[in-house]
Here is the input.
Amino acid sequence: MIEFKRGNLFLSECEALGHGNNCEGRAGAGIILQFKQRYPAAISKYVMACMAGNFHPGDVLPVKCKDKIIVNMATQNKIRRGGNGGARAEWIRKCLEDVRDNHQKYGFASIAFPKVGCNLGGLNWHDIRELFIEIFEDCDLKVEVYE
Here is the structure.
């Protein structure tokens, strides 16, 4: 089940929050900066995985925090500037399919996402929105996407 919403992702009642990450371990801009401020332990584990060379495009790193499970998703290899953020739809697909297929193992039945791969990631939201629908429309996982 998928629902597109407006509002503040961080006010979602979902058990998990997912977001896109680069694989360089940098969390200084965009929504990842907000995750870093709210869930520093989750971003610290992501940074450590990057520094150890254990976080690659398409990987998913869920981290249990006090009130949410934060799902770090490797949607771009490197940070790029100048209109091309470096996110790739195939990496987003791999991450979203992993979330769909493994959410029970990760310990949640509901998850909320921002517009993954768009804005700083550089991808077109219309295309990525269709990817969310394709992956989650017939799924038992409750998914909210904040547009």
Observations:
- The CA atoms of residues 1 and 122 lie 27 Å apart.
- Residues 2-146 form a domain with the Leucine Aminopeptidase, subunit E; domain 1 fold (CATH 3.40.220.10).
- The first helix runs from residue 30 to 38.
- The mean pLDDT is 92.
